[in-house]
Amino acid sequence: KNQVEQSPQSLIILEGKNCTLQCNYTVSPFSNLRWYKQDTGRGPVSLTIMTFSENTKSNGRYTATLDADTKQSSLHITASQLSDSASYICVVSDRGSTLGRLYFGRGTQLTVWP
Amino acid sequence: EADIYQTPRYLVIGTGKKITLECSQTMGHDKMYWYQQDPGMELHLIHYSYGVNSTEKGDLSSESTVSRIRTEHFPLTLESARPSHTSQYLCASRKISSGSSTDTQYFGPGTRLTVL
Asked: What pLDDT is stored for residue A52 in this prediction?
């Protein structure tokens, strides 16, 4: 069964600290993995997207890694800011169909305290 | 900034009312989607479309219906709203170019629906 599991479910850190969010998936055949940031009451916004051949991608203070062999990804946030408080969603796409179906994790709720 | 719009952003209505949630995008994307999301939960696909006159049901059974008469417009309709329909509804469009690295999905801001 194709699944995407994220951990931790929630995380609280102090402003300025770093953190790492985890994503494990069983989606096959794999096409790409993306990380989204979703502010409360808003639609998700794409942070990074990685294909099978990419093992790291950065977007400002966000750095995503991908290990396609172990089917794991992480999102590292450096020098956190209050505005980083949001849900971070891992999404994996398969390539078993024309649509390229997306599988969503439940997200990690990050709270940054001053 | 994604050019995908949803209206209304918030809607509170009584049971039995007919409602239409609007979604439009100006990026010319063929593929469009509707997701339902409850607080703290993952997104569930309820409808999708490959293009004009193409609509399919998603993974989560939904009493809503959709139409795709124009590329840029993908409205969702509930004929008779019930409290169980209370949720957030997110519309998205997607562009897939040659090479998976240019597979980009854009989400609208969502409609928060409350049925009393």
From this structure: 84
Which pLDDT does position A88 carry in this prediction?
A: 98
Chain B, nearest residue to A86 by Cα? B40
How does pLDDT run across A45-57, given as a tens digit for each residue? 999 999 888 899 9
Would strands A30-38 and A45-51 be described as parallel, antiparallel, or unpaired?
Answer: antiparallel
B32 vs A57: CA distance, rounded Å: 26
pLDDT per 10-residue tile (average), chain B, 116 residues: 88 96 94 92 91 90 92 96 95 75 82 96
Task: Give chain A positions within 8 Å (CB) of B104.
Answer: 46, 49
B112 touches chain A (CB under 8 A): yes
Torsion of CA A71, B33, B50, B66, to 10 degrees: 150
Residue B105's pLDDT is 86
Q: Which of B5, B49, B102, B107 to mutate to test the interface with A (most CBs of A within 10 A)?
A: B107
What is the dihedral sign for C-alpha B45, B50, B51, B57? negative
Q: Is B98 helix (H, G, I), strand (E, B) or coil?
A: coil
- Phi (first) and psi of residue B86, to 5 degrees: -60, 120
Cα-based distances in Å from A56 to A4, A46, A50, A51, A86? 19, 15, 8, 10, 22
Q: Supply the Cα-derived Rg of chain B in whole angstroms.
A: 14
Strand A86-94 relative to strand A62-67: parallel, antiparallel, unpaired? unpaired
Q: Using omega within 30 degrees of 0 as the cis cutoff, is the peptide bond preceding A44 cis?
A: no
